[in-house]
From TrEMBL:
Originating organism: Alkalibacillus haloalkaliphilus
Domain of life: Bacteria
UniProt protein name: Pyridoxal phosphate homeostasis protein
Family annotation (NCBIfam families): YggS family pyridoxal phosphate-dependent enzyme
Keyword Repeat in annotation: no
Positions of post-translational N6-(pyridoxal phosphate)lysine modification: 35
Taxonomic lineage from the root: Bacteria, Bacillati, Bacillota, Bacilli, Bacillales
CDD domains: PLPDE_III_YBL036c_like (cd00635)
InterPro entries named among the record's database cross-references: Ala_racemase_N, PLP-binding_barrel, PyrdxlP_homeostasis
Pfam families for the chain: Ala_racemase_N
């Protein structure tokens, strides 16, 4: 199947899920995660109508950006080392992995405009996963008040790798609950009404639970390496 056919299929599935849960498919942004594929395949996604690309490493991010440039919005979805912020800050549309104050400080310092950031939350109890604990999200966001270039547009999470749909759903639901809690505080710099959750294997559940940004790699563009 071509990237274009897979994109069509995913869009059809999104429409079906949205119909079931009475959501508007236009409220869901598809980020094609291109970390496993070539520039050519990423370009195929763009040609098929994809508008958002996601990369989890600086090298891949720069490579895709240099190849595709203004034709897409670029999302950084991986762990971000503070010293690398300066290299991507001018090109990034949103950062989905804000997980510590020192990173917010660096983003604020290097950016010459407001940068959309998602706070990454560890909604499963796995020690290995990145992200901050649900109960620490509000105090964390409170601590960002003096970083005017950091705009907290939403929260991001990765569900655990499991076949247990109930557990996955619970993680997504948790993220939404935390986001509701943040919104009740009405921080001017943290509207926090967007949810980046759902990947190839679980985006349908994520949409049911309120995802606004789904990050799809293998199912959309495949896996070449
Ligand atoms: C790789 C990756 C994805 C996409 O994974 P697939 O299972 O291939 O869809 C989504 N989010 C993050 C943070 C990733 O690193």
């Amino acid at each position: 199947m071509s990237v274009s056919e897979r994109y069509q299929l995913i869009q059809d599935e999104i429409k079906q899920v949205c119909k079931r849960v009475k959501r508007n498919p236009d409220d869901i942004e598809i980020i094609a995660v291109t970390k496993y594929v070539s520039n050519e395949t990423a370009q195929e996604a763009i040609d098929a109508g994809v508008q958002h690309l996601g990369e989890n490493r600086l090298e891949g991010f720069m490579e895709k950006y240099e190849s595709i440039g203004q034709a897409a919005n670029f999302h950084f979805i991986g762990t971000l080392q503070s010293r690398k912020v300066k290299d991507l800050i001018d090109y990034v549309d949103s950062i989905h992995s804000l997980d510590r104050k020192s990173l917010a400080k660096e983003i604020n310092k290097r950016a010459s405009r407001e940068v959309s950031c998602f706070v990454q939350v560890n909604t499963s109890d796995e020690e290995s996963k990145h992200g901050i604990k649900p109960e620490e999200v509000v105090p964390f966001i409170e601590s960002l008040a003096n970083y005017p270039n950091v705009k907290v547009v939403g929260l991001m999470t990765m569900a655990p790798l499991t076949d247990d749909e109930q557990y996955i759903r619970q993680c997504f639901r948790k993220l939404r609950e935390v986001s509701d809690e943040v919104q009740r505080h009405q921080f001017s710099y943290a509207p926090c009404d967007q949810l980046s959750m759902g990947m190839s294997n679980d985006y349908q559940i994520a949409i049911e639970e309120g995802a606004t940004h789904i990050r799809i790699g293998s199912k959309l563009v495949g896996k070449e390496v």
